[in-house]
Amino acid sequence: MDPAERRAISTWMARLADGDREAFTPLFERLWPVVRSFTARALGHDADADDVAQRAMVSLFARASAYDTHRDGLAWALGIAAWECRTLRRRQQRRRELPQDAAASVRDDATPEHALLEAELAAAFCAITGSLDAEDRRALGLEPDGGPASPALRKRKQRALLRLRAVWSRMHGTGA
Amino acid sequence: MAPGPELDLARLRVRARAAYERGRLRAAIRGAWPVAALALLCLLADAPWTVVLPIATLHAVVVIALVHRGRAPARAVAGGWLAGSLPLLVALASCKVPHACAGGSCSAFCLPACLASAAVGAIALVGHARRRRLDDPASLLAAAVIAGLTACMGCVTIGLASAIAALGGIALVTAPAVLVGARR
């Protein structure tokens, strides 16, 4: 931007700060393309740049009466636009962090449920294995058995597993 | 990079203009704090709140309207406060001074004090306006109104006559300046 245009922005800005409403339209028309291209360069995304440039323009005009007439108007306007870009980036960063947190909270929330399910499963298992006789329980390794593994024991284990599956199906309607 | 097709610049302009007016109004409300300070000063000087608060409210509304409007009348507000604070302080001090009584007759200082201090304040106001090139009738009138309201806040504590004297003193000096400015 050439220095004359820059000075013109400062002049219009000073007039608007003083309460001259006639300065609004020329200032808006000069600032909009500059702010829009600044946000586009800063964010590199069209939709975000539009959104942020609009927010920056509204914010800029809301603070126009506080403009210090000794300052450069363009630098002041771009300072507000830069702040809006930073705000958007922070918001996006927070949004990216949120799903991880949400996942963590889901995991944390799921733990008691999971533990409850496991406890229910263990209780069901105990109830079923409790219905088996001592020989079957010993064959399934649920009770200590000091003897070495033998073909007879393997056969007994197989039969015990079949009975366990049958009891499970009878009680819960699904295969174990 | 071109703006998106969905961007409505006319709507954005309206939003920006509304934000500008809201910002000015907020700044004007913040800028009216001396009115609250003056009202507090009057109340601390035992002025009746039933008199001070309505005048302070009117004073605040006028200040907010002038500062929100902006330009020369807004810049004249500070001069009005400065000019009006002299009769205000003189009036508040006069309340504390007993009447001079001798030989069965009493003379009150408050009324002439209000008139004289208001005239001095108004002379200062016209000088201030000329220095700051606020010689257009609108800003001089705005400054005179603010000075009158400021003076009134102190002078009504000693009576309506004192308030009228303060306003008269300000009008006496600023009216010619306003008329001269209007003829130019």
Topology of helices and strands:
The complex is a heterodimer of chains A (176) and B (184).
Chain A: H1 3-18, H2 24-43, H3 46-62, H4 73-131, H5 134-139, H6 151-172
Chain B: H1 9-31, H2 33-44, H3 49-69, H4 71-96, E1 100-102, E2 105-107, H5 110-131, H6 137-155, H7 160-183
Antiparallel strand pairs in B: 1-2
Helix pairs in contact in B: 1-3, 2-3, 3-4, 3-6, 4-5, 4-6, 5-6, 5-7, 6-7
In short:
Chain A has 176 residues and is an all-alpha fold. Chain A has helices at 3-18, 24-43, 46-62, 73-131, 134-139, 151-172. In chain A, 80% of the residues lie in helices and 0% in strands.
What does this structure look like?
The complex is a heterodimer of chains A (176) and B (184). With 176 residues, chain A is mostly helical. Chain A folds into two domains: 3-99, RNA polymerase sigma factor, region 2, helix turn helix motif (Rna Polymerase Sigma Factor, Chain: A), CATH 1.10.1740; 110-172. Chain A has six helices and no strands. Chain A has helices spanning 3-18, 24-43, 46-62, 73-131, 134-139, 151-172. In chain A, helix 1 (3-18) packs across helix 2 (24-43) and helix 2 runs antiparallel to helix 3 (46-62). The longest helix of chain A is centred in the middle third of the chain and has 59 residues, at 73-131. Chain A starts with a helix and ends with a helix. Chain B is mainly alpha-helical. Chain B has one domain (33-98, 105-183). Helix content of chain B is 80%, strand content 3%. In chain B, helix 3 (49-69) runs antiparallel to helix 6, helix 4 (71-96) runs antiparallel to helix 5 and helix 6 runs antiparallel to helix 7. The A-B interface holds A 16, 18-20, 24-25, 28, 32, 36-37, 40, 46-47, 49-50, 53-54, 57-66 and B 1-4, 6-7, 9, 12-13, 15-17, 19-20, 22-24, 27, 68-71, 74.
